[in-house]
Amino acid sequence: MTGKIARTSMLGASCVGILLGAAALLWTPVAWGEGASSGLQVEPRSMDRSLEGIRKGVLTKAQDGTVWIDGKAYTLAVDALVENRTGRRLQVKGLRLDDVQFGVEYWLDGNQITQTVINFPE
Prior knowledge:
- The chain has one helix at 2-26, and strands at residues 55-63, 66-69, 72-84, 102-109, 112-119.
- It is of the alpha+beta class.
- The protein has a five-stranded mixed β-barrel.
- It is globular.
- Mean pLDDT is 77; it is low at 22-26 and 28-34.
C-alpha cells in the first residue's frame, strides 16, 4: 500500500512540475519575442525636414517634456525628434533649459511637437 501511495505522489509531483515548467516557458520574454535578439534591427526614425507646416520661433524654456516657444507651452510627443542644427539627436527626457533664447524650427501635430530643431549659439 505504501508503494502505491508513493507512486501516486511521485506521479502527481511530476505532473505539477511539467505544468509549472510549461507556465514558466509561456511567460518568458523569449517566448513572446521580447528580450532576445531576433535579428531584426529597427532603424531610428530620422528628421523629415520636408514636412509641411514648419514653424519658427524662439525657445525660452524646456522642462519635463514641455517646451516654451514664443511664450506658449507645447508638449513634446512621446516619440518627438529633437536635434541641433547639425543633425545631432538630443535626448528629450533630459532636455532642460531655463531662461534661454534659442531659435527653433518645429512641426506640430495638434498641440504636440513631433519634431524640432534647436539652433544653439556657436
